[in-house]
What does this fold into?
Amino acid sequence: MKQFFLLSFLSLISTINVRAQTNLAGSVTDDKNQPLAGATISIRGTTTSTITRVNGQFSLPTNESLPLTISVSLTGYKQQDVAVRGNNFRNIVISLTKEAILTDELIMSVSRIPEDSRKAAVTVEKLGTQQFQQSPASSPFDALQNVKGVDLLTQSLTFKSVNLRGFGANNNNRFVQLTDGMDNRSPGLGFGFGNVAGISDLDVERIELIPGASSALYGPDALQGLMLTSSKNPFTYQGLSVQLKTGVNNVGKANFGSKGYGDMAIRYAKQLGTRFAFKVNFQRLSGTDFIADDYSDRSTRARTNFFATDPSKGGIATGIGFVPNNNSNTNFEYDGVNSYGDDINAGGAFTFPKNYANTLLQSKLVTRTGYREVEVLGNNGKVFNNRANVSVHYKLPGNIEASLGWYYGNGNFIRTAGFREYFPDYQRHQIKAELRGDNFFLRAYTTQQRAEAWNIGQTATAINNTWKSVGQWATEFGQAYVENKVSVGEARVTADRGRYLPGSAQFNAVRDAYANTYNTDFIPGSTTVKGTRFRDNSAMRHYEGMYNFTKLLNNAVEVIAGGSIRHYALNTGGTAIALKADGSEYSINEYGTYVQAAKGLKVGTFVTVKPTVAIRYDKNQYVNGGFTPRASAVASVGVHNFRGSWQSAFRNPSPSQLFAIPAAGKGGDVGGSQLSAGPAGLLTNPAYLDSDVKDFVAGRLTEAQLRSRSYNPTTITTEKIKTWELGYKAQIQSKLYVDAFYFHSKYTNFMAAQSFYQPTNGQLTDFAANAYRTLQITFNNFNQTFVNGWGLGTDYGLGQGFTISGNYTHQVGTVTLRDAQGNIINDNAGVPIVKRKMSNPEVAQKGRNFFNSPENRYNIILSNPLLTDRFGATLTYRWTDRMWAEQGTTAGDVWLPSWTSLDAQVSYKVPTVKSVVKLGGTNILNQYYAQGYGLARIGGLYYVSITFDELMR
It folds into this structure.
């Protein structure tokens, strides 16, 4: 395959025609003949562009032959296409008129070549510098929360996961994030880290988002969509830019108080001569994270009688029967959501024997006292993030650009998987070399990361057990409760005497001993107890290329073809991913190739149709390969564009989903590969689905029936999706913009981690005594899963620069449940579960499905970037429906309430120093909400910033 790329490169170079360079020059003004700075000038059909200087003038060298067409755009003005000929290329005069709605934009993501966003054959969203400037969000990445259909799950101030079209996840491995063409995902953990290691805010030029299956051109894992973030080219965006931002969050937090934060970014780019340019970026954020401080009694199916049932119908679930008791002084089983070490299903609970001396405690479950998350962390929520980039660019003959870049990200954050995990000092390096022309690109890059973290919940449990075992604690609790006849709260106080207090020297020493010791090693001074730290210092190398054959085919048909090779070198030391039998680390090889063809056709006088077909083949060495075809078409009638597509995609299991193993004796994730089953003890001590265990304990399953349903490690395979989509997009009279879509998706071989219980002593009687560990085992189920949805986005120009925008998205997930033999599963009333909502209690009763997405959400935005020549403002209202959430080992199963957020910003331009002052805030009414169970609750974030742009140009 490497030889293929070398030969392709040589053939591409041989086809390059060196043409004489032409220098385009001109000026851009408004309708009052005032110069406009910062307008973007781009040559249609190429990647060549520049922006106007403070006097409105520009120059743009190109090797394209005249005549050609340039596009001119600027926030608040109508985009204009201008023909450039031999008689005007040295003095191109453009006058732009004010317009609030801008939709005639070029995009790259749908077909990997430039095209008009209105005529794209699939749904696509684009955010550019204009939208970033006008958004109340504090960063370009955060501005995604205003895009229709996007759900951001906030785990940390700097770590947010993008979710689209159902199956929301804190670690979404069904969504691909590309940064300047490089995969943003962790090589070992297999999910994108959001903006933890992304591009500096000042260097983001645009973000393009494709909801839905995108594997045909971008390979595995793009089941739910693709996000392409592109940085600014130093030939186009030059000079010194500086952004200073300060703000406050955690306003009104009881016993915590408001906390400030600061964010500083600097960018410098310079062109030297006609061929060489470079840029340097750095950004530093420091502050206090949003705190996970939900201490209500945890709602989880691990609770006895969690579902409300109808005994007359076989015990079918009719809703949630569990009623939280948030008072640990009266609740034997208090288990706080963000309190750890008190978990009823992760080592924090004790069940008194059936023959206990006091009948009040016989078979009674009691949880010990836990520690709050902020207490275990011990850092008072401090968060930091550093991002840096250095790149050099060189223009070769034939309008080819060569570049070499280094991208760096570093910070601390919390992520939520089966447990909450703290990464105190994450570091990632990406180095990329690229050769790009108007009709091809060749790219090679590597991702090298250092990701070490420790499990917050397991560490809290370990601190408790180091002080006193759960059995000894329960004995003292029982004695106080029975002999002294005290309350639950007083019995807890008695059993807690001498407990390590948060922040004390003893507490910190024990926590650090566990947190700084790998889960494969014994903590200092012990030969039986291991640490809670794990690492993923894995690396990935990726080589890819593409060629556009359209010009070689005399523009008769658009044809592109490409391919890629990936190599993953895992490095976890056995702390997160299993080692081979010889003790060495696993590596993974993948390769893929694709081709796409499209043809624009004229049908009659007013109609044009452009059908497109694409197909791709990908192969991972541990799973079967597969083809992902896509067929689409867009029909344009004047300003009206109708699109339709059939798309397919598949997802390879991530390295952790293949090989993950839990620490010895502890709960955690287990990979679906047979290579993980042995180290997890599943071959000698089987595990059982949590719902089956509950049925067994309740007497609804016999011992033989339960044993027949034990987890059977089989060969894991790819998860697949097929999607039909219809859409409509139009811009009517430069005042109304409409974008609507409908989609229907079907998943097969759905891959997810389900909760299994593994008995402590290998005996089924362990379950009645609460003696088991909870494993999150990844496997392919036989269910048929469907997602249907539609969305509508509109922008309307009200005049005088005002625009009102809105978008609404609706999506529903349904499932046909099947057992391991492929038979349809009945609910407890004996009715087959066929295409029922996954949030319905009788479906959730049979196991988790992880749809984790609101059915409805909408945004309403009122904006005017030109209230005056200097003032601009935006007001945004966001609403998200309630959501049935199923999450992790120590999270739970719960209806999360609906939430709203009001965001606003006011900006003021200071032209004399090329700066913009911005006062903004998100959730300005400070109504705290959580986007996932156990995640940090998000309140108001208020900031003021000043941005100096392109000084010293």
